Amino acid sequence: MSGPTAAGTAPRRARRTTAHLALVDADGRAVLPADRPPGEERLAGARIGFGDDPAEVARAAAGLPAEAPLAPCDVRSEVAEAQAPGGVPVELHIDRLYYTAPLAWAPDAAPGGRRVPVRAAVALPAAPAAADLAEEEAERAAPVLRRFSSYGVVTDPAGRILLSLIAPGFPGAGTWHLPGGGVDHGETARAALRREVAEETDQRCGVGELIAVTPHRRTRAPGPESPETDIYAVWVFFHAHVPDPRPLRVVEVDGSTADCAWFEAPDLARIPLSATARRAFTTLSAAGSAGE
Fold first, then answer.
1. What is the pLDDT of residues 107-142, one digit of tens each?
2. What are the DSSP calls for the chain, one per residue?
């Protein structure tokens, strides 16, 4: 691990996102490759480039066909120092997305390694490692903005759903939005969601399972450097729960949230929803229909 340069300059900060896949058997256990000793196995994984679909990256890393069904199962974050070309130190924040796929979709003979709980497979050291992720992608012609954001389908004991109203002057102004937002450098996706729920609604929530991952792309959109920016985001959605609701209020000052409220499920069809909220509810509805 590298430290500051000789002149005392702190490493440059950078963000990376990767996708990984675990094959699971009929009992729901991950089947690991047999090419390494126990504890040193590596799940298939690869870097997510600007504009890539994370699920497609995971399939390609594992050699699965495009039609192989995937289920998102976890997000893990790490901060590590590495050296970019030329010896420049870089402090990388890496968000790693994990998927599962049925073992029957394995491209060749079934892997012959250990069978472990999926959570144990996800906890293995990940590849590509930080050293393999230090190099920047090739520059693009237009200004770009890349984001990794965490949102919650937040419920209470009565089954209500918590939403926040986007303030004037922000994209989607006047629509009801899932609590959440960008994940800060050094922050995990779950910690970011807890922070955002507290800032936007003054509620304390527990964050549960990852329920969806989706990419989002906008071109020629307003950005910090240009009014025509190519924006690429990866949105992760968790189920979150507020066990003891208290009076709602917006805590953040001069932020993107104008109001917040609890809604019954039938209300969602009668209120204007943000693109993020629509994407989450559509994904959940499709997953529910597939499971019936």
1. 775 667 899 999 999 999 889 999 999 998 888 777
2. ---S-TT-PPPEEEEEEEEEEEEE-TTSEEE--SSS-TT----EEEE--TT--HHHHHHHHHT--TT---EEEEEEEEEEEEEETTTEEEEEEEEEEEEEEEGGG-SSSPP-S-EEEHHHHHTSPPSS-GGGT-SPPPPPSS-EEEEEEEEEEEE-TT--EEEEEEPTTSTTTTSEE-SEEEPPTT--HHHHHHHHHHHHH----EEEEEEEEEEEEEEEE--SS-SSEEEEEEEEEEEEE-SS-------SSSSSEEEEEEE-GGGGGGS-B-HHHHHHHHHHHHHHHHH-
